[in-house]
Structure formats: C-alpha cells, structure tokens
Design a protein that fits this description.
65 residues; mainly alpha; 2 helices; 71% helix; elongated
Length: 65
C-alpha cells in the first residue's frame, strides 16, 4: 500500500505541475490545446492537485513508521 500511495502521489503531483504549466502558458502540450493553454483557472487547479500529490506522498512516507 505504501508503494502504491507513493506512485499515486507522484503522478498527481506531476499532473498538477503540468496543469500549472499549461494554465500559465509556459508549457503547451499537446500543441495548441485551446481548452487549457493560457487559462489561469487551470493553473489554480494544478496548484490544488500538486498540493494533494504532496500530501499523498507525505502520508505514504509516514505509513512506514
């Protein structure tokens, strides 16, 4: 369970960072995605997802103790 939570946390963190990049216009992949590119609300969703990912990672690391 610890490894599974760690992997999920990392994936959620990476997804959040991707959304931050797209929402701010810094990272445009897939190319020309009009739904997410330069729409700041996606950056806010990304911040929330990245924080959730960090919380999941921290929780998975504490389970081992």
């Amino acid at each position: 369970m610890k490894i599974f939570l760690g992997i999920v946390g990392v994936l959620v963190l990476l997804l959040g960072l991707h959304w931050i990049g797209q929402g701010t216009g810094y990272f445009s992949w897939p190319h020309g995605n009009p739904v997410m590119d330069n729409h700041i609300e996606w950056a806010y969703y990304g911040i929330a997802a990245a924080i959730a990912g960090l919380i999941i990672i921290a929780y998975s690391r504490r389970r081992s103790r």
